[in-house]
Amino acid sequence: MRIPVFVSCPTSLTRKQDRSRQMILTELKRMQFEPRALGRSDYPTECPLKEVLVIAKHCSGGVVLGFEQSFAPALTEKRGVPRKEKKSRNVVMPTSWNHLEAGILFGLNLPLLVFKEEGIGGGVFDTGVTDNFVHTMPSEKLDSSQRRALADVFLKWQFRVREHYYR
Questions:
Q1: pTM for this predicted structure
Q2: 3-state DSSP call for residue 133?
Q3: 91 CB burial (10 A radius; 0-12, 13-18, 19+)
Q4: Taking the mean position of all CA atoms in its chain, how far away is CA 154?
């Protein structure tokens, strides 16, 4: 029997993004985990946010995949707030569902594994927000040492997932 883990990931991805997602799913399956995701393995019968909670309650871990879903050539944050206004260029943002789902997983005290594409930040992708390290999204061009490092990340996380499952 495979141990269920929740995977927070947008349903619409570029080819490159989907290849990264597939690498992660391959690792999960290699470790005998069953990826569960709203809109991929499970489909809502009630409101989607409630369905995420229902699915997550049956999981023993979570993986958050922060892929670019929105792009802004120019962005002003905290507009009109003196000495806080910040202007940025070429801003990329993940789906807001990553933050919602990560919050639910964190609230359920599930072991989290967080990956993000370059440029993704905010919320769960900010350093120090959770007790988890935020990892760079793997690409198909990993050398052997990078593949070993990725495998080590999964090994450490899977120990905590199995510990949760068998409690």
A1: 0.91
A2: coil
A3: middle
A4: 13
Q: Are 4 and 34 in contact (CB under 8 A)?
A: yes
Task: Please provide the DSSP assignment of 64-95 as one string.
Answer: EEE---EEEEEEEESTT-TTT-EEEEEEEE--
C-alpha 58/C-alpha 77 separation (Å) is: 38
Q: Say whether domain 3-68+95-165 belongs to CATH 1.10.760.10.
A: no
- pLDDT of 83-139, one tens digit each? 898 999 999 999 999 999 999 999 999 999 999 999 999 999 987 766 678 999 998
CA atoms within 13 A on the CB side of 155: 6
In angstroms, the CA 127 to CA 63 distance is 16
How far apart are alpha carbons 88 and 123 in whole angstroms? 17
User: Where does the pLDDT of residue 1 fall: very low under 50, low under 70, confident under 90, or very high at 90 and above?
Assistant: confident
Q: How far apart are CA 114 and CA 116, in angstroms?
A: 7
Sheet strands side by side (includes 33-36): 33-36, 3-8, 62-66, 112-116, 134-136
The secondary structure element, H or E, covering residue 50 is helix 48-57
Q: Which range among 49-58, 70-79, 137-146 shows the weakest confidence by mean pLDDT?
A: 137-146
